[in-house]
């Protein structure tokens, strides 16, 4: 089957990373795959199988690219299109109107939180377009049961084509552990309000000052809050112990030797980085945000869960996790349950292959 995937670019985000893994998995099963992108740039591009065709659209803005996408789809000869994220799904449905191409839309995040934070007007427009256009989807894939349940509840069971498929995640077994020179706790993700790294730094400060933790805090990722986070760490007197290292292509080498991985998000759709940490046998502490972490960690069996907006509770959970003896093999085995092969098999069922 000839299959297309639509993303804006190959940036370091979770949706882009997962799309590349899925595309590679589809190619390994003998399918012809192409990517439609607004810009063929980003660190995830180098991870693509060299058999995958990249089709860069002539329009560089999502809001106005429907015609360019429609033209590219017709010329590519694809039979199915996998689109990622709400606004991309809407554009894909507009572009394929009257074209015999089935669209599989993938929701990667907490829909309500994402839309509410874009402002009332965007929220209302998006909600209306979803109600009108999403019934045309061949299938709507949600990356966690929480996201699926939210969609079903919010739209009053209006979609009969909902399906949960957990994201495919891989560890990099060939990556050597990082040589840091001191023990450390690690966090990873875009430096945005959603990821709430300010609370992680607060919790780390409590861990240092009240529990005597003598390791560092390492944060991997880029984003708009980098400067403010560095300033906040400095205000707490931790400028020489909190390290914001920017984007790291594969954080696995850090997870292999970290004392603990911490996810401090206010909301998620799945939580790819938790699985990456588990695959390295790294202990995990996460906020019990909507949605994903509790499903991955099986309500605390494979890591600790705490409430959002509670730095002290997060610090206590980290301290408890550091003193807890966990089987690395059990953590790795749990991580392997979210393998690419499992996800690809389920996507092939949705695609009708």
Automatic annotation (TrEMBL):
This protein's name: Glycosyltransferase family 4 domain protein
Glycosyltransferase subfamily 4-like N-terminal domain mapped to chain residues: 13-169
GO biological process terms held by the UniProt record: carbohydrate derivative metabolic process
One Gene Ontology term of the molecular function aspect: glycosyltransferase activity
Ranges of residues in domain Glycosyl transferase family: 181-337
Top-level division of the source organism's lineage: Bacteria
SUPFAM superfamilies referenced in this protein's UniProt entry, alphabetically: UDP-Glycosyltransferase/glycogen phosphorylase
Family matches, as Gene3D superfamilies: Glycogen Phosphorylase B
InterPro entries: Glyco_trans_1, Glyco_trans_4-like_N
